[in-house]
Amino acid sequence: MGCFGVRGVVLDESVLFGVDDESGNSVLRPGLEYLLRKLQFSGLRTSLLCGTSLADSKVSCIGKITALYPVGHFNFFHDIKAAWGDITDNILYLVSKTNGNQNLNLSSCSWTVTVLEAGGTSLNQHNAMSISRLEELPLTICRINKKAMCGHTVTVGYIMKSSRETDFAKRGAFPMYPSQNGLIFLPLTFNLPISSQIQEADIILHKATDEITSVELNGPISCPRRICFSDGFQELLRYTEAHPDCRLLDSINSIHPIIDRLAIQKILQGLQDLKTEKDYSIRAPRFLMVDNFSDPELAKMLEESSLSFPYIVKPQVACGVADAHSMAIAFKVEDFRNLAVPLPAVIQEYVNHSSTIYKFYVLGEKVFYATKKSTPNADILIKLSEQNGVQPLLFDSLKSLPIATDSQSPNEEACMKSGTLDLELATDAAAWLRNRLGLTIIGFDVVIQEGTRDHVIVDVNYLPSFKEVPDIVAIPAFWDSIKKKFESIKTKAQHRCICVPLY
């Protein structure tokens, strides 16, 4: 292996197939598609090395692989050398301990050999490493690249649901080869012992809310004991607690308020501490917490909370459970009768905002935003309700948010009433919110109230996708935020060691 680590991966045909099915047809080896998904956007070149005399069922399987994943397909060693001449000394070759490619003379090349299935190799390579499952290969690549870089890298283990990982990875966010600021990304899986993986990581990037299994509602959700995570994630947390050398990018305690809409509302009320000489402010929406929509005092409670119709009604649990995004817009007190929104719930003021929302993304010290269409003003919503028999508008905020159409978009006069975005004010709020929550990567949504020009933060979330920000600026900022947080954690740990009194 050259001095620059793994730049390309060659998968021998012997690792592609498992035991034939009952009809004698070839089937893909378990774990192969997992591995190909991880390699797909890893920044590493990937190719198959197959002989020329394959059974039809194997040819069919290989065709499906090359159709789904951006992998090359070569028949001979010299073909790879010709195509990958610029990285020929930085190739990892994965082969099974039996039935390896007989046409390949490994003694004549500088490839790093990794053998699938422990217990020896028929290739008789004294420097060959071994793995027992295909899912282990990313870990092997990580170890090789760390060693090649002589410790001048930071390994970021990451765990999140597959669809979210793909959204990040296809934008180049998770390279297995060091990024421009020295980050190596290691995908973690609960299908392997978590301890052996985390040992290689310096810091863990996680979307903890993807691992929530249940949330108890008998008390403040933000209490750690109220939130239950998957067994695998709990094991990860126990390991990081016992091994301070490996830290979470953001602590679980810091994420708890994001899960609880009541907690985040109370935090946002602290925005009043941001001093401004302008005649408008950035603030939280007015709200009321309710446990029962049938409370006979509900109308009085709404009035005392300075709320007026319409209202937007949201579950207290903000994420991690199936119905966290089941919401409603209510137009009268009677709409709360049998309202299909989970309880407890937060009733927020509905802000007329000219159907425009500003989505802010905070990546460490960098702040980005994008402008998007939003829900119509109250008068349009009332008309929509009348079409529905004067019923509350029910929607899923991730799937069926009632976005304003072009005909419902505000005219120039309405836009002037709401005013333009005060970027300086919003940026100050971003810094305040990041420090208040103690989180590295957050998103929040701002609407500008017509008439008052108040900037109202209506939602806050952790580790957003920031897809609206161009990758060319967003991904380096993403990497930079992780690197700086790691360095900050490391510096604080060293300072604590220095400050320990000697007796």
UniProtKB/TrEMBL annotation:
Name of the featured protein: inositol-1,3,4-trisphosphate 5/6-kinase
PANTHER family cross-referenced by the UniProt entry: INOSITOL-TETRAKISPHOSPHATE 1-KINASE
Reported cofactor(s): Mg(2+)
One family name in Pfam for this protein: Ins134_P3_kin
Keyword Secreted in annotation: no
InterPro entries documented for this protein: Inositol_tetrakis-P_1-kinase (IPR008656), InsP(3)kin_ATP-grasp (IPR040464)
GO biological process: inositol trisphosphate metabolic process
Similarity field: Belongs to the ITPK1 family.
Domain Inositol 1,3,4-trisphosphate 5/6-kinase ATP-grasp: 280-472
EC main group: transferase
Annotated keywords: ATP-binding, Kinase, Magnesium, Metal-binding, Nucleotide-binding, Transferase
Assembly and binders: Monomer.
Gene3D superfamilies: ATP-grasp fold, B domain
Molecular function GO labels: ATP binding; inositol-1,3,4-trisphosphate 5-kinase activity; inositol-1,3,4-trisphosphate 6-kinase activity; inositol-3,4,5,6-tetrakisphosphate 1-kinase activity; magnesium ion binding
UniProt keyword Isomerase present: no
Documented EC number(s): 2.7.1.159
GO (cellular component) term, any one: cytoplasm
